[in-house]
Amino acid sequence: MSSPQPQMPQAAPSWEAAPGAAHPASGAAHPAPGSPYPGYTSPIPVVRTHLGHAIASEWTKIRSVRSTMWTLGVFVLLVVGIGLLTGVVVSSSSSDLAGENALSLGFFGLLLGSMCIITLGVLTTASEYGTGMIRTTMVACPSRGRVLAAKAIVFFLVAFVVTLVSSSVVAFLHVAMLADNGAKDPTGGEWLKGTVGIALYIALLGLLSLVVGSIIRHSAGAITIMIGTVLAPLVIALFMFSESLEAVRDALFEYSIPNQLSVFYANSLSQSGPSGWDPLWIILGVTAVAFGGAFALLEKRDV
Amino acid sequence: MIELEGLTKRYGEKVAVNNLSFTVRPGIVTGFLGPNGAGKSTTMRMILGLDHPTAGSVRIDGKHYHQLKEPLTYIGALLEAKAWHGGRTAYNHLLCLAQSNGIARSRVREVLETVGLTAVARKKTKGFSMGMGQRLGIAAALLGDPRILMFDEPVNGLDPEGIHWIRTLMKSLAAQGRTVFVSSHLMSEMALTAEHLVVIGQGRLLADTSMADFIARNSRSYVRVRSPQRERMLDVLHQAGIVAVESGDGVLEVDGGKAELVGELAARHGLTLHELSPQQASLEEAFMQLTAESVEYHAHSETSPPPPQQQWGDGWKRG
Ligand SMILES: Nc1ncnc2c1ncn2[C@@H]1O[C@H](COP(=O)(O)OP(=O)(O)O)[C@@H](O)[C@H]1O
Ligand SMILES: [Mg+2]
User: Fold this and answer.
1) Ligand 1 and B131: CB distance under 6 A
2) Domains in chain B: how many in total?
3) What SUPFAM superfamilies would the database entry show (chain B) (predicted)?
């Protein structure tokens, strides 16, 4: 499998000093900045790199591993599959949805599907630490912030587009299937929240996972933390029986991620707490703070 | 050119690299020699900006690594451990690297050809043998046609043919005027490839010298002498002021390259010689002795003076 070395050895360049001669003592003053250093000059034109190069690189990375196809494939399957199933069940039963929003049935599929987006988000950063790829990445792009930004942009766009397409497909199906059950036609605002809004929220949840992956540097650990973040508040709230803890319980419940998701379908399980587009601003704030932390840690730590 | 100034790295209590200062020049292969755990990989990671130095600094053609805008065209590195995702194909691994530095796709095929991985370019790298992995790492290092190349223990896991290939590659890269910096824990490997030698032990600089100088200074040469008239031989040598030591089996060892002198003395006194052979102690031995002393020096630095080896680099630099 080896091939002969094609690069032609050239005669030693004339400036090459005899070994041992003219070697600057260690610690000697450097030549003035900008002074030419001798050595090989490549015929390949030198390109000034920028964020665009890092984005192209991250796009190649994300599309060339199987875990991306798996997580996104399962995501689409869950969202569309569960969406179809609930649609069929509800429309074939004689239940009357008088005045209800048909889009809200998309909730269950998206809640489960969000686990896939969380997994992909974490893997985008953390898996590079597991494989050692991160060293190659950082040698190729010493600007660590640029690497994190490129990963975030590429992942966010992928997650947003895939969520938008699948949630829109499910939304159209539900509206068509449930028209006979008395569900009202969603307004323009409801359409926007049930498709673009929810897609932005899920993509941001994935982005938060990506950032947590960068901080934790361990795939399984970061995925566990994120799934815990999604489910734990709800579970803890369920076990808070005491009257004195009622306020805490309600807050945990209202701000739990599943409840925030349901706000996009205007059927929040409680009357107070976040409403309208609030969940989007909340997760945006949390992700921004986490991003700042991840960036600072990335600069400070060894790779 | 790579310039290290007082480079130090501490991991908690452990000092992995201790106040290293030296320069790696273009046009030659510089060997970076030290036993396992000496701090070679840590030094290389600091050169690449992966680990932050605790103290000191390192510059590449006058710049810090993070100041390089197109790093792969400046410096290519083969890292110690496997540093890629096993689920990605060799081609895609190199492609994402090329893209991050704005290097043309055609260059990916070129380097795959250079290292002989074209046939497996579309295969996932997790199925690669250790030797193929080294070749992939070298392909990544060559991708930007860089001025500086750094290889951390490149012959690890290679078969003899692969080892020969990489020696030739490193020499030809240096002959093109590039800076080539290669680490190893094997003196014998360095002796075959490197023209200049930097030796470290316990993170400290032990020698910074040309290979020729190192060999001249460190390979003790002596003459083996065997004679049936051993006692008279010893007397004759003693009278001539030549120090000889007995090394068992009736063999005498005479320090220095004095074979002619011993032969002439024996003839003049009518002594029979069964053996008169110039010998050289191996470089590996010299290297082990050098690094062993560094350990000792490390342990008793309060009480004992530094061994003379500490001055080798300096003496050479003055000359
Ligand atoms: N990330 C790290 N954390 C703690 N200790 C480390 C780390 N990296 C290296 N070391 C220690 O530093 C010393 C030098 O290691 P290394 O640079 O790998 O040596 P070499 O490459 O010469 O074999 C070793 O004792 C090693 O255990
Ligand atoms: Mg090492």
Assistant:
1) no
2) 2
3) P-loop containing nucleoside triphosphate hydrolases
